[in-house]
Amino acid sequence: MAIDYQKEGKIALITINRPEALNAINIQTARELHDALVDFRADPELWVGIITGAGDRAFCAGADIRDMLPFLKENLPQRPWAMPDTPMRGLELWKPLIAAINGAALGGGLEIALACDLRIASEKARFGSPEVLLGLIPGWGATQRLPRVIPMCKAAELLLTGRPIDAQEAYRIGLVNTVVAPEAVLSTAKEWAEAICQAGPLAVRAAKEAMARGSNMTLEDGLKLENALEAYVMSTEDFTEGTSAFLEKRKPDFKAR
Ligand code: CAA
To answer: What pLDDT tens digit does each residue of the chain (257 aa) get?
Structure first.
């Protein structure tokens, strides 16, 4: 399998498993990534997902240049739906995703990390958008998400030169949440996932949806969306449980209901 998919309590662990190709995404990998994420979205027992790469060299070196790029060239103009939906393009997913970036995150690999909500990086990780060096532009969202995450001039630096930056610089410009020793990347991602699992899962999903959809709206429309989601969250059992637990000085027992 090109994707290793494990369930550990409330956490889904999705590992891109092609270390011999630096975890580049070929068509099979894209299909399996889609399948894993659709299962994660549907499984009521799973609350947070972690995406990482196998081995210690790469998180993901991007689209597979031998197999994926010819497939995209053939299909994109007439049959864009031939590409399986992923959070980079098309797959709507409000459960939180954490990227555990254990090595190089280049091209489509950076775009997978950008489609996650939190990014935990190894101090050996590198980040870049080398597509222009191939005579190409990013196709899984970097031209749109990168300038929304980091300052425009740094996004332009990455997108126009194709040159990578190291983990410390990625942290300095706000591209990643934290930088840790290589051996601590996955355990740190799991700690952050466990921290999110302490919160009301429906509230977490509503917060993500409000941020993601609101970022494409005017402030006025975004505030209306926030109101609607707040009303929904207040109608859930989890809201009653969370507020009761606070007043009764006990730990809440959220059920995602
Ligand atoms: N596609 C296919 N194979 C890849 C790959 C990719 N994106 N990246 C690495 N590999 C393969 C190499 O071909 C090599 O395979 P062989 O041993 O069979 O020759 C193996 O992985 C190891 O790679 P290197 O020998 O090149 O390792 P290195 O340490 O010398 O270099 C690297 C590492 C700098 C990451 C280099 O592999 C590299 O530049 N990779 C390509 C990165 C890239 O351009 N990514 C963008 C792809 S396009 C894209 O992603 C478009 C999009 O938006 C969706």
So the answer is: 999 999 999 999 999 999 999 999 999 999 999 999 999 999 999 999 999 999 999 999 999 999 999 999 999 888 888 889 999 998 999 999 999 999 999 999 999 999 999 999 999 999 999 999 999 999 999 999 999 999 999 999 999 999 999 999 999 999 999 999 999 999 999 999 999 999 999 999 999 999 999 999 999 999 999 999 999 999 999 999 999 999 999 999 999 99
Distances (CA, A) of 36 to 14, 50, 57, 154, 155: 7, 11, 23, 33, 30
Tokens found for residue 40: 């994660």
Catalytic site residue from 45, 74, 92, 111: 111
Does the annotation count 209 as an active-site position?
A: no
Residue 197 has phi, psi (to 5 degrees) of: -70, -15
Is ligand 1 within 6 A of the CB of residue 30?
A: no
Q: Is the pTM of this model over 0.85?
A: yes
Cβ–ligand 1 contact at 134 (below 6 Å): yes
User: Catalytic one among 32, 92, 123, 131?
Assistant: 131
The verdict on whether 169 is a catalytic residue reads: no
